[in-house]
Amino acid sequence: MGSKEYNIAIAGVTGAVGRVFLSILEQRKFPIKNLIPLASHRSAGKTITFAGEEIEVRELNADSFKGIDIALFSAGASRSKEYAKYAVDSGAVVIDNSSAFRLDDDVPLIVPEVNRRDIDGHKGIIANPNCTTIIMVVAIKPVYDISPVKRIVVSTYQSVSGAGATGMTELEDQLREIICNKNSKVIPKIFPVQIANNVIPHIDVFYDNGYTKEEMKMVYETHKIMGDDSIKISATTVRVPVMTSHSESVMIETEDNVSIEQIRKALEEAEGVVLKDDFANEVYPTTLDSSGNDDVYVGRIRKDLSAENGISMWVVGDQLRKGAALNAVQIAEELIK
């Protein structure tokens, strides 16, 4: 990376992903000259700690990006749409964690392990994909490299931190109400129904086709990242009462007959993947394996009995890290190479 240092702004620094941005930049020793933490006027004036220093949070506005090289955005789609242009006009490259630009034709949608070469086409904005999509494509790419993937059927088990810090608080509050106060009726604020002791097959809004926006994101984003619109994809996205890390049950149908051994070997050698797959000894990945860790964990690899050339696997990743902040920082690392 050389000895050059960069001015970095983080928009949405006080949110769940913003806080993880800080720890990952610090852990990976990103070459930072000045760090500018930005948030809404409600959080302006608070301080954050970075590399042992207390830094005051500034209010996000049109003038926030003077002299900034890279702006990491995790402040929601409406704020990205409003402020990213000011960052680009100031000469910064925006890496955006929201859904604002993901499907724009002239904005690269990047998972470095899968399509890092697409970064070069950026026009000032690079999009970070949806967390569930990132975790899935990291596991699918090594298989795709052996044989093109024709079809994917995925069901997700998504943790509450996917809904941000408020989602985590809601699960904690509800569990406390139920366990400590013996109150079986709790009122949901963030989730459509009670999340404690429950599983909710509903993330984001419903479309006319009966799928949710979260499910269709997985379809469109996977097509774009893999550079292959011919893959048939059906997703069911589900919220589970788990704090961090998303799990996914993934069935892949390949064009050619690929052996389990070939897939295991490919995943074992794949960048960003940890293979945990030994059913004879009950070894498989769980959310606790990936929570706080950078890699995508894969196990339960087996022939799918319902499809010719079908493979089923279980995939787990920390969606605040690889599913969000880490992926964005990895994009920034690619940019400065």
Structure description:
With 337 residues, the chain is of the alpha/beta class. It has two domains: 6-129 and 324-336, NAD(P)-binding Rossmann-like Domain (Rossmann fold, 3-Layer(aba) Sandwich), CATH 3.40.50; 133-319, Dihydrodipicolinate Reductase, domain 2, CATH 3.30.360. Helix content is 31%, strand content 23%. It contains nine helices and 14 strands. The strands form three sheets. The protein has a six-stranded parallel sheet with strand order 5-2-1-6-7-8, sandwiched between helices. Helix 2 links the parallel strand 6 and strand 7. The longest helix has 16 residues, at 165-180. The protein is globular. The N and C termini lie close together (5 Å). The mean pLDDT is 96.
How do the strands and helices of this protein lay out in sequence?
Layout: E1 6-11, H1 16-27, E2 32-39, E3 47-50, E4 53-56, E5 58-59, E6 70-73, H2 77-89, E7 93-96, H3 112-115, E8 125-127, H4 131-144, E9 149-157, H5 165-180, H6 213-226, E10 232-236, E11 246-254, H7 260-269, E12 273-275, H8 287-290, E13 296-303, E14 310-317, H9 321-336
Parallel strand pairs: 1-2, 1-6, 2-5, 6-7, 7-8, 9-10, 12-13
Antiparallel strand pairs: 3-4, 9-11, 11-14, 13-14
Helix pairs in contact: 1-9, 4-6, 4-9
